[in-house]
Amino acid sequence: MRRRPWHETLALLAGLTLIYVAAGKLALRVAYLDPSASAVWPPTGIALAALLLFGRSLWPAIFVGAFLVNLTTAGNVATSLGIAGGNALEAIAGAWLVERYAGGRRAFHRLPDFLKFAVLSGLVATAISPTLGITSLCLGGFTRWSEYGPVWLTWWLGDLGGALIVAPPLILWLSNPRPGWSRRRGIEAAAVVLALCLVGELEFLGYLLPGFSRYPLSFLCLPPLLWMAFRFGPRETATAGLVLLATATWGTLRGAGPYGAFGPNASLLLLQAFMIVTVLTAMSLAAVVAERRREHAVLELQAAELARSNAELEQFAHVASHDLQEPLRTVTNFVQLLARRYRGRLDAEADEFVQYIVDGTTRMARLIEDVLDFSRAGTSDRPMRPIDTGDSVAKAVANLDLSIRGSGAVVRHDGLPTVNGDPTQLTQLFQNLIGNAIKFRGPDPPEVHVSAALRGRDWVFSVRDNGIGIQEKHFDSIFRIFKRLHGRDQYGGGTGAGLTIVKKLVERHNGRVWLESIPGRGTTFYFTLERGA
After folding, report:
1. Cα angle for residues 156, 161, 162 (degrees, 5° grid)
2. What percent of the chain has pLDDT over 90?
3. Is 55 left (phi over 0), alpha (psi -120 to 50) or beta?
4. What is the pTM for the complete model shown?
């Protein structure tokens, strides 16, 4: 923190002293139980906000202000010094505790920090001033020891209200004075404040409907405060609480409202207790909403970054795979030509090495083709439209005709529904699942059955086979790209990308895929697709 010029520091000290004296003299006009103890004490909030915003070095202004207020009200120099010392120490302790444990001026944007603020600055620090102040007055003979408890409670509740209701809006507005609202948000904020003022008038003032304020309807103050907490934030909620406090205090002093009939001091104590609980509730909710809003913004940013990264990765995979195909095709052609022309003209070991090269380039070509299929599975230039999945299955079966004939497989399907989807990708989805069922077959000829059932808003499709099955421990891993459960020489080879592509195709159609399987008896793959219009 930069060191302020002396003239700026002097101006802050003088201004804070004047504000403290003015607020203190005004508050002591409602000191009914004891001339030095008021149930409404904004100077505590002003002092705490000043020290948190401008530094604890401004404590002399609190000391001088409190001394002047009390010296011109009741007591003598000694008692005024004791009260001033307690007020200054209270402000210093509250600011230090909040900065050390509650995040300082940022204490209102997280619930744990706000609760620490309420406990440390409200319950702990505010006990200092009434303890030192009343003890000084009792020792000086200005307050009877028998009145220590009631006066202490009045003094403490006044300080507590100042710390929890007056300080937050001052800290939040001076930290960020620009509302940053759109015109629509400004109108909404004005409407909520107007509603709060209307409720405060009806419940605590009674100018519009005399007699209405006698009914115990204080809970009507909660909806506007909660609306501020949900729709705006801690700053606006704290401001609404301060507006309500001013309205309710004025009405209670006039003897109106639900607390106006209990006597001057008791009515203010009851009002302070009500306001503290109400504002604490609203501010706690505002802190939770603010925290969730920040977390949501971070998640949205991370999701956007992840989507961008995935798109770039898919584009890279597509371009890289496409560009690799041509040189690989050249290498493959010449290696195959070498194998044909020179087979037998070299020694047996050379023929074996050439065959290794041919097998390797062939596998590489299949891997690149699968990478291309994988990159295309998550995107498509064609919009989703109603598709007859029976046609998709028929096309997939036609594409697999050679495999079906060679294996003696039987592929059946029930009447299949119309869904929203991409026709090419749905054909590939069924082709990969039926192809897998044929490839991983047992000793009996493959039997594949495709069906669908409506579950809520989605169709649940199943592709059931009588193949070798899958152990449950592999249910998740088989959807990872290039994950194979068998060697390359078993079940016709393959790269292990087929089910990964299936999963991506289903997710692109806003569905999910899972399976059930019994090793040695077969597997059923399930996936969901949105119902067509």
Report:
1. 95
2. 46
3. left
4. 0.65
How many other CB atoms sit within 10 Å of the CB of residue 2? 4
Cα(438)–Cα(445) distance, rounded to whole angstroms? 9
Residues facing residue 465 across a β-bridge: 448
- Closest by Cα among 448, 371, 444 to 411: 448
Q: How far apart are CA 274 and CA 224, in angstroms?
A: 16
In this prediction, residue 370 carries a pLDDT of 56
Phi then psi for residue 221, to 5 deg, are -75, -20
Q: Once rounded to an integer, what is the mean pLDDT over residues 357-371?
A: 65
Tokens of 64: 């001088």
Cα pseudo-dihedral 24, 25, 27, 33, rounded to 10: 110
227-263: pLDDT as tens digits: 999 999 899 999 999 999 999 999 888 888 888 778 8
Alpha-carbon gap, residue 42 to 26, rounded angstroms: 9
Collapse the DSSP code of 517 into the 3-class scheme (helix H, G, I; strand E, B; otherwise coil) and give the result: strand
Residue 116: name the closest of 159, 274, 108 by CA. Answer: 108
Of the candidates 51, 53, 42, the one whose C-alpha atom is nearest the C-alpha of residue 19 is 42
- 64 to 18, 129, 160, 313: CA distances (angstroms): 10, 15, 21, 66
Sheet of 522-530, strands arranged across = 410-413, 447-455, 458-465, 522-530, 513-518
The whole-number pLDDT of residue 41 equals 93
- List CB contacts of 79: < 8 A, sequence separation 6 or more: 70, 136, 137, 139, 140, 142
Measure the CA–CA gap between 467 and 524, rounded to whole angstroms.
10
Tell me how far apart the alpha carbons of residues 462 and 102 are, in angstroms, rounded to a whole number.
56
Q: What is the pLDDT of residue 326?
A: 65
Alpha helices by DSSP H, listed for 177-263, are 183-200, 222-231, 234-253
If pLDDT is split at 50, 70 and 90, which confidence band does 282 have? very high
The 8-class DSSP code of residue 1 comes to: -
DSSP-H helix ranges across 41-146: 42-54, 59-71, 77-101, 111-117, 128-140
Cα separations in angstroms, 131 against 111, 153, 248, 249, 532: 29, 10, 28, 25, 74
Angle formed by the axes of helices 222-231 and 264-342, nearest 10°: 30
Q: Is 410 in a helix, a strand, or coil?
A: strand
> DSSP secondary structure string, 365-401?
HHHHHHHHHHHHHT--SSPPEEEEHHHHHHHHHHHTH
What's the sign of the alpha-carbon dihedral 35, 36, 40, 46? positive
Q: Mark residue 444 as left, alpha or beta (left: phi above 0; alpha: psi -120 to 50; beta: remaining).
A: beta
Are the CB atoms for 335 and 343 separated by under 8 Å? no
Q: 171 exposed, middle or buried (CB, 10 Å; 0-12, 13-18, 19+)?
A: buried
**455 three-class SS:** strand
